[in-house]
Amino acid sequence: LASERKYNDGPEGEIWRELRAIFSDLQGDGKCAYCERKLDRHKPNSQTTRDDAVGDIEHYRPKRGVVEWVSPDGIATGGSDTECYYRLAFCLRNYLLACSICNQEYKQNYFPIAGPRAPAHSCRTRELHAELPYLLHPLDSADTDPELLFGFAGITPIVYAAVGTPDFWRATVTIQLLGLGKGERWILDKERTLVIATLYKALDTPEPRDSIAQYVVDHAEDDDWAHASCARSFRRLYDADRVAAKRFAEEAIYHIEKEQSRRNQSRIRF
Ligand SMILES: [Zn+2]
To answer: Please, what is the average pLDDT of the chain?
Structure first.
């Protein structure tokens, strides 16, 4: 515990704070790299003198050994290894900024792979590449853009690749491992529901739209908005199949109204 404190406080802690700010900028002004939720961020103001991003610097490949991830579909995922990947503890390409739920509850020390596990001391690109990781690396320009492999039907992630192909399993394992599926994490369902309902209402506002509706239409798909990939999927559907988009939007609006009435009923009255 003492060494852990040393790692996070003092001069080392300052380095991690600076890294968090850098990755926060890279990741859509402070979005979790995995679930696309917005992380808290303290902007400089009269109380604080520096921009301080919140979130965990997450190691894409775990730095203190790999725990076997058991696939619900029974595919081989490379087993466990107590030594891997200590040489990558301070490798910048191995970093992401993630929310503590993604990092600590879901990703943990799992790193499922389809190929052979690289030697524990390895930091060679060739050996690491040969591991064929299942988990998509959303920041690595050498990796496939996650949005090419999966998108959303409403608030439900859907895999584009043909069933059983390597890309299919990469998208599937990424969704399973991080708990990105519908019904896994209520807050993701709730936020995506709000994104779809709000975007639909804005898109459906006759032009010239009021300023708020136009603002939502113009920016909901921006990288620095939470759940932009869900918004982009919805926008594509809206443009291609208005009836299908309306169905998803009505479902979203129904859930919001249900939640609203539940809240109204549970409000204490004096
Ligand atoms: Zn997250």
So the answer is: 91
- Write out pLDDT tens, residues 52-101: 667 889 999 999 999 999 999 999 999 999 999 999 999 999 999 999 99
Gap from CA of 169 to ligand 1 centroid (Å) = 21
Whether the bond into 208 is cis, omega within 30 of 0? yes
Ligand 1: distance of its center to the CA of 136 in Å?
A: 14
Q: Smallest Cα–Cα separation from 52: which of 41, 38, 61?
A: 41
Q: Report cis status (omega within 30 of 0) of the bond before 85.
A: yes
CA 20 to chain centre: 16
Look up the pTM and report it: 0.91
Distance 51 CA to ligand 1 centre (A): 20
CB atoms inside a 10 Å sphere around CB 264: 8
What pLDDT, on a 0 to 100 scale, did the predictor assign at position 48? 47
Q: Which of 176, 191, 262 is nearest to 230 (CA)?
A: 191
Residue 34's nearest CA partner among 134, 177, 156 is 177
CA of 210 relative to ligand 1 center, distance in Å: 33
* HSE (side-chain half, CA atoms, 13 Å) at 15: 8
Distance (angstroms) between ligand 1 centre and the Cα of 227 equals 11
Residues in the chain: 270
Residue 138's closest CA among 165, 162, 102?
102
What's the gap between Cα 99 and its chain centre? 8
